[in-house]
């Protein structure tokens, strides 16, 4: 059961949010998005944003990063940050995912509420799905990657094979 639910957002709406970020940063036509550099830029642009790199043992096992939606503060494991700086696609996606939480819940203010029901939450109301979708749309721009192969998306966008394969089907459908 998903603990929290948010207001409905479609993939196309989240793609538009990701494009707005790219346009604001003058990165609309860049295939490789500078995700780690964005952290420092956001800390300057937004008073309500902060991040820190923490030792790996400071976050629970299985947690690579987290976002406090009340404060806009993101914590990233040192190994994940280092991996992202070195171009590791999975680590780049992890940071983009946390930025997805920041943009959707802190900056755009999507409504977040507890889910006390036992019913399955539709993906478009799941904050984890929304952050994952936003991350994919931010790092793999549909308008630039349509028609490209999965292998080319991996290389050009600096993402994992799994992420490229997942986005490929939404870009080319």
Task: Supply database-style keywords.
three-stranded mixed beta sheet; mainly alpha; 173 residues; 51% helix
Q: Report the count of strand segments.
A: 5
Helix content: 40-55%
Poorly predicted ranges: none
Q: Which structural class is indicated by helix and strand composition? A: mainly alpha
If helices are DSSP runs of H or I spanning 4 or more residues, what is the number of helices?
A: 8
Shape: globular
Please indicate the percent range of residues in DSSP E strands (runs of 2 or more).
5-15%
- Major sheet details: 3 strands, mixed
Describe the structure.
This protein is mainly α. Helices cover 51% and strands 12% of the residues. The chain has eight helices and five strands; from the N terminus they run E-H-H-E-E-E-H-H-E-H-H-H-H. The strands form two sheets. The protein has a three-stranded mixed sheet with strand order 2-4-3.
Offer a concise description of the structure.
51% of the residues lie in helices and 12% in strands. It has 173 residues and is mainly α.
Which helices and strands, and how do they pair?
Layout: E1 4-6, H1 11-24, H2 35-45, E2 50-54, E3 65-68, E4 73-77, H3 78-85, H4 89-107, E5 112-114, H5 127-139, H6 142-145, H7 150-157, H8 161-171
Parallel strand pairs: 2-4
Antiparallel strand pairs: 1-5, 3-4
Helix pairs in contact: 1-5, 3-4, 4-5, 7-8
